[in-house]
Amino acid sequence: MQRERGPSIEDVAREAGVSVATVSRALRGLPNVAATTRARVEDVAESLNYRADPSAARLATGQTKLVQLATPTIDGWYFSRFLAGAIDHLLENGYEAITHPVEDPATRERFLSDLLESKKRVDGVIVVDLNISEESANKLWHAGIRAVTAGFATQCFPAVIVDDYHVGFVATQHLLDLGHKRIGVISGEPNHPLAFSVPGLRLAGYTGALAASGIAVDPSLEQSGHFTADGGRRAMERILDMKNPPTGLFVMSDEMAFGAWSALNERGLSWPEDMAIIGIGDHELAPLVGLSTIRLAPRELGAAAAERLLTLIAERAESLTAKANGAGEATEASQQWVTLVPRESTIGESDG
Amino acid sequence: MQRERGPSIEDVAREAGVSVATVSRALRGLPNVAATTRARVEDVAESLNYRADPSAARLATGQTKLVQLATPTIDGWYFSRFLAGAIDHLLENGYEAITHPVEDPATRERFLSDLLESKKRVDGVIVVDLNISEESANKLWHAGIRAVTAGFATQCFPAVIVDDYHVGFVATQHLLDLGHKRIGVISGEPNHPLAFSVPGLRLAGYTGALAASGIAVDPSLEQSGHFTADGGRRAMERILDMKNPPTGLFVMSDEMAFGAWSALNERGLSWPEDMAIIGIGDHELAPLVGLSTIRLAPRELGAAAAERLLTLIAERAESLTAKANGAGEATEASQQWVTLVPRESTIGESDG
DNA sequence: TACGCGACTGCAAACGGTTACATTCTGCTG
DNA sequence: CAGCAGAATGTAACCGTTTGCAGTCGCGTA
Fold first, then answer.
1. How far is A332 from chain B (nearest CA, A)?
2. Phi, psi at B233, each rounded to 5°
3. Among the listed residues A245, A256, A240, A248, the one whose alpha carbon sits nearest the alpha carbon of residue A210
4. Which of its termini does chain B have fewer beta carbons within 10 Å around, N or C?
5. What average pLDDT score do residues B56-61 get?
6. What is the pLDDT of residue B349?
7. Which residues of A touch B125 (CB under 8 A)?
8. pLDDT band of B125, cuts 50, 70, 90
């Protein structure tokens, strides 16, 4: 039943002729251990191939050195890169990452209740693009959960977010600057159960840019592409089927833009003449098809979120009695990781 | 220092007026607990918002309910989907996943030594496309590590692999069937430090197919594309610069094929007339550009690997004294997840 | 009525570390 | 030489579960 266990700290202590306390101190590099003793202990540990049992250490210290990463999916272009950035940063700092996709509502339910239990499971949580209600967030905060959010903000927790209003605005403005008056948009899934806020903000930026140019918003010009290439293709077909299609198109992700591009191609049309298209993200393949886009930096974002969480963990660890500052510092949406990258799909062949 | 902890099993026991043992049994659904007692305990636990501390449970049982997933990267098309499939399956079975990219040699070193320690950290490991030597594998096996490999096989551990020779053969044969005699190949990184076996096998399949048709292999027709879109593009440029370029091209991943396609486009050439191209994977964007490909099923593969690992864990748990069958069952490369998907890039417009 | 047998329940010993506190051992200083 | 500070080490009490074993209790049976 019980699976065979490796050497314990006691074995090392016996072999090295010291107490377990000394072994613990020696192996963890704590002070007040004679150099010769430390060396001997290290040798013995090495020869016995001893490693401290993490579960035991966690139980004793209350620190797990584990962080949970929750994203809508783990295999999307954006999220997989976010995860890569976060995980790399965590590993560098001695933490391991538990990844946890939260897609359908059922999973979400379980996720939220699990989250309350998370304090014992992990040292902190990074929640990406899952709109957690202020109420839930508050509950988590009071349960003592350390968390950082990304892609959305709450009152309680620090957040790492790009200014998605700005993203939508810049993309739309780019089309406006090129003289387009009739601009359509392929958005995400409007009634998605997780309804993350990103699409809404980007849409607001789109609307805002139009308004700033005195252009009325035509709701029929918005089509949902579900954030997939195929969804983008179908949305584009609906748009091309319109009696009066737009001349410019803001697509909320490069993947959907690829789909839109292929629909355009299939009808023998080409950009930017027949339709100018701008996407979001700067997918590896965007330069290959010449897609204009708003470059995001999911990897850097992920790393930033991880960094923020680590300092949060450190702060709370060093001073439990510190002023219980009920709220994370005001986090403002950053434009730091947002760059307009114009390519053929909007400005045409640019030789010169 | 010590972070505040939540309610313990003792609190529940006191509140419910029973012993901790009973609480433990009641909450875990073990038999020999009176229905009324169980209900009462559950109520108390609920009201106290009690959850068993995983670290303590792990220490006591020796089971972590944790699985480590090691892949070269986590944000590639193939690997991210493999991970998604594996993680979903693990979560369904009450396990959590620690993901761990292993890219550069330095990471690899640390990874291998960490792996030896893994027995206490996790219940099992899934190692994807990292060529672990038989020697290392043996060491791991004797250390009692439970592992499943994917993309490569060892003597010791069960493996989940697709027949990559077959993949290369089928792709090349497809081009041969279409009448191509001069067939090039864009491969992965030949001298990659991790040198996983997949590219080698695919290349062997390519060579084998050519040989079977009595065609000599021209080494100059092989170019490395580093498994990236941009690498594929550059490799294609080198190929197009040749005095006598091939008429058919086998590209070892769809991502590289996209790059090749764009290089083709840039020169005003088109497929399949100027060059017939077949990729591997069936990326979401493959149908959009009409790329012929060999469809793989990374998600299903990941799920299969997870499943295999879970049964391995279960087996060893139920019978420690069972015949120490020193080797995993013979695992043969499967062709189960391999499908030829011909599209325009090789067979041209197919109306009819 | 005495007995035996399940079904329940409790006691207490692991599990393998960490760490506050006590103790021992130095080498110096006055 | 006594006294003492400080470094090095040991002792033992946790951390919060699980689980083998020993009771306890109720009840049908001889």
1. 28
2. -65, -45
3. A248
4. C
5. 95
6. 78
7. none
8. very high
- CA–CA separation, A307 and A312 (whole Å): 9
Task: Select, from the ranges A89-98, A100-109, A329-338, B184-193, the one with the highest average predicted confidence (pLDDT).
Answer: A89-98
Share above pLDDT 90 across residues of chain B, in percent, rounded to a whole number: 74
Give pLDDT, residue B131.
83
Q: What is the mean pLDDT of residues A297-305?
A: 95
Q: Which residues of B touch A3 (CB under 8 A)?
A: 62-63, 144, 316-317, 320
Residue B116: which residues within 8 A CB-CB, separation 6 or more? A49, A51, B139, B140, B143, B145
Among candidates B42, B98, B38, which has minimal Cα distance to B74?
B98
Phi first, then psi: what are they for A317, rounded to 5°?
-70, -45
Closest CB to A233 among B4, B56, B288 = B288
Per the CB < 8 A criterion, the answer to whether A51 and B115 are in contact is no
Which pLDDT band holds residue A105 (cuts at 50, 70, 90)?
Answer: confident
Measured between alpha carbons, how far is residue B191 from residues A16, A50, B187, B232, B253 in Å?
44, 35, 11, 16, 17
pLDDT in tens, A203-225: 999 999 999 999 999 999 999 99
Closest nucleotide to B60's CA, by C1' atom? C15
**With 0-12 CB in 10 A as exposed, 13-18 as middle and 19+ as buried, what is A7?**
middle
Which of A27, A64, A67, A74 is most worth mutating to test chain B (most B CB atoms within 10 A of its CB)?
A74
Share the mean pLDDT of chain B. Answer: 89
Pull the structure tokens for residue B81: 């989907």
Alpha-carbon distance values, B236 to A23, B256, B318 (Å): 59, 9, 54
Cβ within 8 Å, pair A229-B284 = yes
As given in the structure block, the two tokens for residue A188 are 């995400």
Residue A323 clears pLDDT 50, i.e. is over it: no
Q: Phi, psi at residue B295, to the nearest 5°? A: -75, 130
Q: In what order do the strands lie in the sheet with A292-295?
A: A222-224, A183-187, A248-251, A276-281, A292-295, A339-341
Least confident of B301-310, B319-328, B342-351: B319-328
Question: For residue A257, is pLDDT > 60?
Answer: yes
Instruction: Give exposure, A13-30, as e/b (b: 16+ Cβ within 10 Å).
Output: bebbebeeebbbbbbeee
Q: Is the CB of A303 under 7 A from strand D?
A: no
Contact check, Cβ <8 Å, B84/A101: yes
